[in-house]
Design a protein that fits this description.
With 436 residues, the protein is mainly beta. Helices cover 3% and strands 35% of the residues. The chain has two helices and 28 strands. 42% of the residues are buried.
Length: 436
Protein backbone atom coordinates (compact mmCIF):
# COMPACT_ATOMS: atom_id res chain seq x y z
CA UNK A 1 0.00 0.00 0.00
CA UNK A 2 1.40 3.37 -0.99
CA UNK A 3 0.52 6.27 1.34
CA UNK A 4 -1.91 8.90 0.09
CA UNK A 5 -3.23 11.74 2.21
CA UNK A 6 -5.99 14.26 2.86
CA UNK A 7 -5.01 17.71 4.13
CA UNK A 8 -6.24 19.54 7.24
CA UNK A 9 -6.18 19.26 11.03
CA UNK A 10 -9.35 18.17 12.87
CA UNK A 11 -11.43 18.04 9.70
CA UNK A 12 -14.26 15.61 9.20
CA UNK A 13 -13.06 13.61 6.21
CA UNK A 14 -14.64 10.99 4.01
CA UNK A 15 -12.64 8.56 1.90
CA UNK A 16 -13.31 5.25 0.16
CA UNK A 17 -11.05 2.69 -1.49
CA UNK A 18 -13.99 1.33 -3.55
CA UNK A 19 -16.52 3.54 -5.30
CA UNK A 20 -19.82 3.85 -3.39
CA UNK A 21 -18.51 2.01 -0.33
CA UNK A 22 -19.53 5.02 1.76
CA UNK A 23 -23.26 5.11 2.52
CA UNK A 24 -24.97 8.29 1.42
CA UNK A 25 -27.12 10.18 3.90
CA UNK A 26 -26.93 7.66 6.74
CA UNK A 27 -24.18 6.20 8.91
CA UNK A 28 -25.60 2.72 9.52
CA UNK A 29 -27.91 1.58 6.73
CA UNK A 30 -29.62 -1.78 6.91
CA UNK A 31 -27.14 -3.08 4.36
CA UNK A 32 -23.84 -1.51 3.30
CA UNK A 33 -22.53 -1.85 -0.25
CA UNK A 34 -20.09 -4.71 -0.93
CA UNK A 35 -21.37 -6.59 2.12
CA UNK A 36 -19.41 -4.37 4.52
CA UNK A 37 -20.07 -3.93 8.23
CA UNK A 38 -20.61 -0.47 9.75
CA UNK A 39 -18.67 0.24 12.95
CA UNK A 40 -18.19 3.46 14.92
CA UNK A 41 -14.93 4.32 16.69
CA UNK A 42 -15.44 6.98 19.37
CA UNK A 43 -12.54 8.96 20.81
CA UNK A 44 -14.74 10.99 23.18
CA UNK A 45 -17.95 10.28 25.10
CA UNK A 46 -21.05 10.33 22.89
CA UNK A 47 -22.27 13.49 24.63
CA UNK A 48 -19.05 15.51 24.36
CA UNK A 49 -19.72 19.02 23.00
CA UNK A 50 -19.77 19.07 19.23
CA UNK A 51 -16.66 21.27 19.07
CA UNK A 52 -14.57 18.53 20.70
CA UNK A 53 -16.56 15.42 19.79
CA UNK A 54 -14.33 12.86 18.05
CA UNK A 55 -15.67 9.85 16.18
CA UNK A 56 -15.40 8.08 12.85
CA UNK A 57 -17.55 5.55 11.05
CA UNK A 58 -15.65 2.62 9.55
CA UNK A 59 -17.02 0.38 6.81
CA UNK A 60 -15.06 -2.84 7.06
CA UNK A 61 -14.97 -6.38 5.76
CA UNK A 62 -15.43 -7.86 9.26
CA UNK A 63 -16.27 -6.13 12.55
CA UNK A 64 -13.33 -5.74 14.92
CA UNK A 65 -15.14 -7.79 17.59
CA UNK A 66 -14.33 -10.93 15.60
CA UNK A 67 -11.32 -12.60 17.18
CA UNK A 68 -10.82 -16.31 17.73
CA UNK A 69 -9.32 -16.38 21.22
CA UNK A 70 -9.76 -14.73 24.58
CA UNK A 71 -7.29 -12.03 25.49
CA UNK A 72 -4.32 -13.35 27.43
CA UNK A 73 -1.83 -11.28 29.39
CA UNK A 74 1.71 -11.27 28.01
CA UNK A 75 5.04 -9.87 29.20
CA UNK A 76 5.15 -6.07 29.01
CA UNK A 77 8.99 -6.08 28.95
CA UNK A 78 10.20 -2.45 29.29
CA UNK A 79 6.81 -0.72 28.99
CA UNK A 80 5.63 1.16 32.08
CA UNK A 81 2.52 3.24 32.82
CA UNK A 82 1.82 6.01 35.35
CA UNK A 83 1.32 6.13 38.29
CA UNK A 84 3.80 3.26 38.52
CA UNK A 85 6.92 4.05 40.53
CA UNK A 86 10.05 1.92 40.44
CA UNK A 87 12.78 1.97 43.04
CA UNK A 88 16.23 3.02 41.86
CA UNK A 89 19.35 4.58 43.32
CA UNK A 90 19.09 7.55 40.98
CA UNK A 91 19.03 10.78 43.04
CA UNK A 92 16.91 13.80 42.21
CA UNK A 93 18.56 16.09 39.72
CA UNK A 94 18.87 17.34 36.18
CA UNK A 95 19.39 14.35 33.88
CA UNK A 96 20.81 13.79 30.43
CA UNK A 97 21.40 10.67 28.36
CA UNK A 98 23.46 10.04 25.26
CA UNK A 99 21.84 8.17 22.36
CA UNK A 100 20.78 4.58 23.02
CA UNK A 101 22.26 2.41 20.29
CA UNK A 102 19.86 0.52 18.05
CA UNK A 103 20.37 -3.15 19.04
CA UNK A 104 21.20 -5.94 16.61
CA UNK A 105 18.48 -8.21 18.00
CA UNK A 106 15.12 -8.45 16.27
CA UNK A 107 12.82 -5.83 17.79
CA UNK A 108 9.48 -4.65 16.43
CA UNK A 109 7.94 -1.30 17.29
CA UNK A 110 6.16 -2.97 20.21
CA UNK A 111 8.97 -5.14 21.58
CA UNK A 112 11.40 -2.25 21.04
CA UNK A 113 9.49 0.24 23.22
CA UNK A 114 11.48 1.38 26.28
CA UNK A 115 9.70 3.65 28.77
CA UNK A 116 11.92 6.49 30.05
CA UNK A 117 9.50 8.52 32.20
CA UNK A 118 5.91 8.31 33.44
CA UNK A 119 3.77 11.17 34.74
CA UNK A 120 0.25 11.60 36.09
CA UNK A 121 -2.21 8.71 36.16
CA UNK A 122 -3.44 6.78 33.13
CA UNK A 123 -6.45 5.53 35.13
CA UNK A 124 -7.51 9.14 35.70
CA UNK A 125 -6.93 9.99 32.03
CA UNK A 126 -4.23 12.55 32.75
CA UNK A 127 -0.48 12.71 32.25
CA UNK A 128 1.87 10.96 29.87
CA UNK A 129 4.78 8.64 29.36
CA UNK A 130 7.89 9.15 27.24
CA UNK A 131 9.35 6.16 25.45
CA UNK A 132 12.15 5.28 23.10
CA UNK A 133 11.31 3.04 20.15
CA UNK A 134 14.26 0.95 18.94
CA UNK A 135 13.05 -0.88 15.84
CA UNK A 136 14.99 -3.45 13.81
CA UNK A 137 12.16 -5.59 12.38
CA UNK A 138 8.79 -5.00 10.77
CA UNK A 139 5.64 -6.26 12.45
CA UNK A 140 4.51 -9.25 10.36
CA UNK A 141 0.93 -10.42 10.84
CA UNK A 142 1.06 -8.59 14.17
CA UNK A 143 -1.01 -5.52 15.02
CA UNK A 144 -1.68 -3.43 18.11
CA UNK A 145 -3.68 -0.64 19.63
CA UNK A 146 -3.21 1.46 22.76
CA UNK A 147 -6.29 1.83 24.97
CA UNK A 148 -4.36 3.92 27.52
CA UNK A 149 -3.54 6.89 25.32
CA UNK A 150 -2.74 8.34 21.94
CA UNK A 151 0.79 7.96 20.58
CA UNK A 152 2.87 10.82 19.19
CA UNK A 153 5.88 9.35 17.37
CA UNK A 154 8.89 11.54 16.51
CA UNK A 155 11.13 9.84 13.94
CA UNK A 156 14.81 10.41 14.78
CA UNK A 157 16.84 7.88 12.77
CA UNK A 158 15.38 5.92 9.89
CA UNK A 159 11.85 5.87 8.55
CA UNK A 160 8.68 4.18 9.83
CA UNK A 161 5.58 3.04 7.97
CA UNK A 162 2.32 2.91 9.94
CA UNK A 163 -0.27 0.65 8.33
CA UNK A 164 -3.50 1.60 10.09
CA UNK A 165 -7.21 0.88 9.87
CA UNK A 166 -7.57 4.26 8.16
CA UNK A 167 -4.75 3.94 5.62
CA UNK A 168 -0.96 4.18 5.44
CA UNK A 169 1.32 6.85 6.93
CA UNK A 170 5.08 7.07 6.38
CA UNK A 171 7.42 9.33 8.34
CA UNK A 172 11.13 10.13 8.22
CA UNK A 173 13.30 12.14 10.64
CA UNK A 174 11.79 15.59 10.95
CA UNK A 175 8.23 14.25 10.75
CA UNK A 176 5.76 13.00 13.36
CA UNK A 177 2.85 10.57 13.34
CA UNK A 178 -0.09 10.60 15.77
CA UNK A 179 -2.05 7.39 16.37
CA UNK A 180 -5.26 8.08 18.36
CA UNK A 181 -6.27 5.93 21.30
CA UNK A 182 -7.78 2.64 20.14
CA UNK A 183 -6.72 2.78 16.48
CA UNK A 184 -5.29 -0.54 15.23
CA UNK A 185 -1.97 -0.35 13.40
CA UNK A 186 1.12 -2.23 12.30
CA UNK A 187 4.61 -0.69 11.97
CA UNK A 188 6.97 -1.60 9.14
CA UNK A 189 10.51 -0.56 8.28
CA UNK A 190 10.69 0.82 4.72
CA UNK A 191 14.49 1.12 4.67
CA UNK A 192 16.25 -0.44 7.66
CA UNK A 193 16.42 -0.02 11.45
CA UNK A 194 14.93 3.07 13.08
CA UNK A 195 14.94 4.97 16.35
CA UNK A 196 12.12 7.25 17.49
CA UNK A 197 10.84 9.15 20.51
CA UNK A 198 7.28 8.38 21.57
CA UNK A 199 4.92 10.41 23.76
CA UNK A 200 1.99 8.41 25.13
CA UNK A 201 -0.74 10.90 25.97
CA UNK A 202 -3.18 9.68 28.64
CA UNK A 203 -5.23 12.89 28.58
CA UNK A 204 -7.21 14.94 26.08
CA UNK A 205 -6.30 14.51 22.42
CA UNK A 206 -3.63 16.77 20.96
CA UNK A 207 -5.01 19.92 19.37
CA UNK A 208 -3.58 23.06 17.84
CA UNK A 209 -2.97 25.77 20.46
CA UNK A 210 -4.91 29.01 20.38
CA UNK A 211 -2.69 31.59 18.72
CA UNK A 212 -4.03 34.53 20.74
CA UNK A 213 -2.48 37.84 19.65
CA UNK A 214 -0.42 36.01 17.00
CA UNK A 215 -3.64 35.79 15.00
CA UNK A 216 -4.65 33.52 12.15
CA UNK A 217 -1.26 32.53 10.74
CA UNK A 218 2.14 31.06 11.70
CA UNK A 219 3.06 28.26 14.11
CA UNK A 220 1.54 24.97 12.86
CA UNK A 221 -0.98 25.58 10.10
CA UNK A 222 -3.91 23.12 9.78
CA UNK A 223 -3.42 22.56 6.05
CA UNK A 224 -0.02 20.94 6.66
CA UNK A 225 -1.43 18.03 8.68
CA UNK A 226 -2.07 14.94 6.55
CA UNK A 227 -4.60 12.16 7.18
CA UNK A 228 -4.45 8.89 5.20
CA UNK A 229 -6.79 7.94 2.40
CA UNK A 230 -8.63 4.64 2.91
CA UNK A 231 -6.60 1.56 1.96
CA UNK A 232 -7.74 -1.90 3.02
CA UNK A 233 -6.24 -5.38 3.36
CA UNK A 234 -8.35 -8.43 2.48
CA UNK A 235 -5.99 -11.14 3.71
CA UNK A 236 -7.14 -14.44 5.19
CA UNK A 237 -4.07 -15.06 7.32
CA UNK A 238 -3.83 -15.62 11.10
CA UNK A 239 -2.79 -12.41 12.85
CA UNK A 240 -1.96 -11.40 16.39
CA UNK A 241 -3.67 -8.37 17.94
CA UNK A 242 -1.90 -6.84 20.95
CA UNK A 243 -3.61 -4.36 23.25
CA UNK A 244 -2.09 -2.03 25.83
CA UNK A 245 -4.81 -1.64 28.45
CA UNK A 246 -4.46 -0.41 32.04
CA UNK A 247 -0.68 -0.59 31.86
CA UNK A 248 -0.73 -4.28 30.91
CA UNK A 249 -0.23 -5.97 27.55
CA UNK A 250 -2.77 -8.46 26.21
CA UNK A 251 -2.82 -10.60 23.09
CA UNK A 252 -5.53 -12.29 21.06
CA UNK A 253 -5.72 -13.97 17.65
CA UNK A 254 -7.60 -12.78 14.57
CA UNK A 255 -8.09 -15.08 11.54
CA UNK A 256 -7.54 -12.23 9.08
CA UNK A 257 -5.90 -8.84 8.77
CA UNK A 258 -7.70 -6.36 11.05
CA UNK A 259 -6.77 -3.54 8.65
CA UNK A 260 -9.83 -4.24 6.49
CA UNK A 261 -11.57 -0.84 6.46
CA UNK A 262 -12.71 -0.14 2.89
CA UNK A 263 -14.15 3.32 3.60
CA UNK A 264 -14.48 5.72 6.50
CA UNK A 265 -15.69 9.18 7.41
CA UNK A 266 -15.29 11.30 10.53
CA UNK A 267 -12.77 13.34 12.49
CA UNK A 268 -11.07 10.65 14.63
CA UNK A 269 -8.15 9.33 12.59
CA UNK A 270 -4.34 9.12 12.57
CA UNK A 271 -2.32 11.85 10.91
CA UNK A 272 1.23 13.08 10.21
CA UNK A 273 3.00 16.44 10.20
CA UNK A 274 6.31 17.64 8.81
CA UNK A 275 7.93 19.70 11.59
CA UNK A 276 9.90 21.67 8.99
CA UNK A 277 6.61 23.29 7.97
CA UNK A 278 6.26 24.91 11.38
CA UNK A 279 6.38 28.70 10.97
CA UNK A 280 8.23 30.10 14.01
CA UNK A 281 7.69 33.59 15.37
CA UNK A 282 9.95 35.55 17.70
CA UNK A 283 11.16 38.90 18.98
CA UNK A 284 12.31 41.19 16.16
CA UNK A 285 13.61 44.01 18.35
CA UNK A 286 14.74 42.85 21.81
CA UNK A 287 13.99 40.46 24.68
CA UNK A 288 13.38 36.72 24.75
CA UNK A 289 9.81 35.35 24.39
CA UNK A 290 8.64 32.33 26.35
CA UNK A 291 9.25 28.94 24.65
CA UNK A 292 5.46 28.49 24.41
CA UNK A 293 5.65 30.33 21.07
CA UNK A 294 7.14 27.11 19.69
CA UNK A 295 4.15 24.92 20.65
CA UNK A 296 3.10 22.67 17.79
CA UNK A 297 0.25 20.91 19.59
CA UNK A 298 -1.20 20.82 23.07
CA UNK A 299 -3.17 18.30 25.11
CA UNK A 300 -5.44 20.52 27.23
CA UNK A 301 -6.35 20.01 30.87
CA UNK A 302 -9.25 21.22 32.99
CA UNK A 303 -7.11 24.19 34.11
CA UNK A 304 -6.83 26.85 31.38
CA UNK A 305 -3.22 27.48 30.43
CA UNK A 306 -1.85 24.47 32.34
CA UNK A 307 -1.44 21.86 29.65
CA UNK A 308 -1.60 18.16 30.22
CA UNK A 309 1.15 18.07 27.56
CA UNK A 310 2.66 20.65 25.27
CA UNK A 311 4.62 19.38 22.28
CA UNK A 312 7.20 22.09 21.59
CA UNK A 313 9.94 22.24 18.96
CA UNK A 314 13.04 24.36 18.39
CA UNK A 315 13.52 24.41 14.60
CA UNK A 316 15.68 26.40 12.20
CA UNK A 317 15.02 30.11 12.69
CA UNK A 318 16.51 33.59 12.64
CA UNK A 319 17.77 35.26 15.83
CA UNK A 320 17.74 39.06 15.57
CA UNK A 321 17.10 40.40 19.09
CA UNK A 322 19.25 43.40 20.08
CA UNK A 323 20.76 43.68 23.57
CA UNK A 324 19.23 40.27 24.27
CA UNK A 325 20.53 37.04 25.72
CA UNK A 326 19.44 34.83 22.85
CA UNK A 327 19.68 31.23 24.09
CA UNK A 328 17.08 29.93 26.56
CA UNK A 329 17.57 31.77 29.82
CA UNK A 330 18.15 30.18 33.22
CA UNK A 331 14.84 29.20 34.71
CA UNK A 332 12.82 27.04 37.05
CA UNK A 333 9.45 25.86 35.86
CA UNK A 334 6.34 24.27 37.30
CA UNK A 335 6.19 22.21 34.09
CA UNK A 336 8.56 19.27 33.64
CA UNK A 337 10.48 19.00 30.38
CA UNK A 338 11.53 15.85 28.55
CA UNK A 339 13.70 16.93 25.63
CA UNK A 340 15.18 15.18 22.60
CA UNK A 341 17.36 16.21 19.68
CA UNK A 342 16.35 14.91 16.25
CA UNK A 343 19.32 16.31 14.37
CA UNK A 344 21.94 19.07 14.45
CA UNK A 345 23.10 21.09 17.46
CA UNK A 346 21.02 22.66 20.23
CA UNK A 347 22.14 26.24 20.82
CA UNK A 348 21.91 26.13 24.63
CA UNK A 349 23.92 22.90 24.88
CA UNK A 350 26.46 22.77 22.03
CA UNK A 351 28.35 19.94 23.74
CA UNK A 352 27.02 16.71 25.26
CA UNK A 353 23.45 16.95 23.94
CA UNK A 354 23.59 15.07 20.65
CA UNK A 355 21.06 13.67 18.14
CA UNK A 356 19.25 10.68 19.60
CA UNK A 357 20.00 11.86 23.14
CA UNK A 358 17.51 13.11 25.69
CA UNK A 359 17.31 15.18 28.85
CA UNK A 360 14.89 15.65 31.74
CA UNK A 361 14.48 18.86 33.72
CA UNK A 362 11.80 18.13 36.26
CA UNK A 363 9.42 20.39 38.16
CA UNK A 364 11.19 23.40 39.72
CA UNK A 365 14.70 22.09 39.07
CA UNK A 366 16.90 24.91 37.68
CA UNK A 367 18.44 24.59 34.24
CA UNK A 368 19.68 26.68 31.36
CA UNK A 369 22.69 27.23 29.08
CA UNK A 370 26.01 25.61 29.91
CA UNK A 371 29.11 27.73 30.52
CA UNK A 372 30.21 27.69 26.88
CA UNK A 373 26.80 28.82 25.61
CA UNK A 374 26.52 31.53 28.29
CA UNK A 375 29.91 33.05 27.55
CA UNK A 376 29.37 32.99 23.79
CA UNK A 377 25.90 34.55 24.00
CA UNK A 378 26.99 37.20 26.51
CA UNK A 379 30.00 38.41 24.55
CA UNK A 380 29.30 37.87 20.86
CA UNK A 381 28.46 40.69 18.48
CA UNK A 382 24.68 40.61 18.09
CA UNK A 383 24.24 40.45 14.35
CA UNK A 384 21.28 38.62 12.79
CA UNK A 385 22.11 34.94 12.65
CA UNK A 386 20.18 31.97 11.35
CA UNK A 387 20.19 28.71 13.29
CA UNK A 388 20.37 25.98 10.66
CA UNK A 389 20.40 22.18 10.64
CA UNK A 390 18.77 21.94 14.04
CA UNK A 391 15.60 20.33 15.36
CA UNK A 392 14.97 19.73 19.06
CA UNK A 393 11.68 19.10 20.83
CA UNK A 394 10.09 18.92 24.29
CA UNK A 395 7.32 16.82 25.79
CA UNK A 396 6.33 19.28 28.52
CA UNK A 397 3.74 18.40 31.17
CA UNK A 398 2.39 19.91 34.37
CA UNK A 399 3.08 16.58 36.12
CA UNK A 400 6.34 15.35 37.61
CA UNK A 401 8.04 12.86 35.33
CA UNK A 402 9.20 9.74 37.20
CA UNK A 403 12.24 8.01 35.73
CA UNK A 404 11.89 4.29 35.11
CA UNK A 405 14.40 1.73 36.32
CA UNK A 406 15.34 1.09 32.69
CA UNK A 407 16.28 4.73 32.11
CA UNK A 408 17.97 5.06 35.52
CA UNK A 409 20.34 2.20 34.70
CA UNK A 410 21.17 3.09 31.07
CA UNK A 411 24.88 3.21 30.42
CA UNK A 412 24.32 6.37 28.36
CA UNK A 413 23.17 8.31 31.45
CA UNK A 414 25.65 11.18 31.83
CA UNK A 415 26.63 11.17 35.49
CA UNK A 416 28.60 14.40 34.99
CA UNK A 417 25.78 16.35 33.32
CA UNK A 418 25.41 18.76 36.24
CA UNK A 419 29.08 19.70 35.80
CA UNK A 420 28.22 21.63 32.62
CA UNK A 421 27.20 24.49 34.94
CA UNK A 422 30.10 24.18 37.42
CA UNK A 423 32.29 26.60 35.47
CA UNK A 424 29.80 29.48 35.58
CA UNK A 425 31.79 32.34 37.03
CA UNK A 426 30.90 35.11 39.41
CA UNK A 427 30.74 38.34 37.42
CA UNK A 428 29.19 40.51 40.14
CA UNK A 429 31.01 43.78 40.84
CA UNK A 430 29.09 46.45 42.81
CA UNK A 431 31.43 49.12 41.42
CA UNK A 432 30.82 48.36 37.77
CA UNK A 433 27.82 49.21 35.68
CA UNK A 434 27.58 47.84 32.15
CA UNK A 435 26.58 50.41 29.50
CA UNK A 436 22.96 50.32 28.39
Amino acid sequence: MNPRYLSGFGNSFETEALQDALPVGRNSPQKVNYGLYAEQLSGTPFTAPQSVNKRSWLYRIRPSVRHTARFEKVDRHYIRTAPEREDSELPLGQLRWGPVAIPRESLTFLSGLRTVTVAGDAEALCGMASHLALVTASMTNEHMFDADGELLVVAQSGGLRFCTEFGVIEIVPGEICIIPRGVIFRVELPDGPARAYVCENYGGAFALPDRGPIGANCLANPRDFLTPIAAYEDREVPCALIVKWGGEIFRTRVPHSPLDVVAWHGNYAPYKYDLRRFSPVGAIAFDHPDPSIFTVMTSPSEAPGAANIDFVIFPERWLVGENTFRPPWYHRNIMSEFMGLVYGTYDAKPEGFVPGGMSLHNTMLPHGPDEQAFEAASNSELQPVKLTDTLAFMFETRFRQRVTRYAATLNTLQADYVDCWSGLKKHFDPNRRDPR
